[in-house]
Amino acid sequence: MKKITKLFYQIFFLFLLNIGLIEGQNVWTKMADFPGVARINTVSFTIGHYAFVGLGNNGSTTYNDMYKWNQKTNVWTKIADYPGGGNLAPIAFAINGKG
To answer: Nearest 5 degrees, angle CA 40-CA 5-CA 83?
Structure first.
């Protein structure tokens, strides 16, 4: 399994709690693996039933790719790359349905 940053797991867990998917069940269900290259310092945010993850670096290479995960279908889709260059410490957020 590819290594995904601790931050991604924390945000993903909060996303699942927010939608009530794991409330009171005390059960983990394996979901689809992140299809991108293993990296650190990723960004992630959610809009509706979608989680968006991307950017980051592996210590020597920065990435500007982005992926969308559909909670209803458990499918990752590569979406358009971030138009700027790669960043060492990117941040992201969503507000009013836009990220």
So the answer is: 50
Pairing of strands 43-47, 50-54: antiparallel
Q: Say if residues 87 and 62 touch (Cβ distance below 8 Å).
A: yes
How many CB atoms within 10 Å of residue 52? 17
Within 1-99, where are the H helices?
6-18
Q: Which residue has the tokens 């971030």?
A: 82
Question: Do 76 and 28 touch, CB atoms closer than 8 A?
Answer: no
In tens, the pLDDT along 45-97 reads 999 999 999 999 998 999 999 999 999 999 999 999 999 876 777 888 888 88
Q: Which of 39, 44, 36, 38 is nearest to 10 (CA)?
A: 44
> Cα(44)–Cα(52) distance, rounded to whole angstroms?
5
What the block records as the tokens of 8 is 């991604």
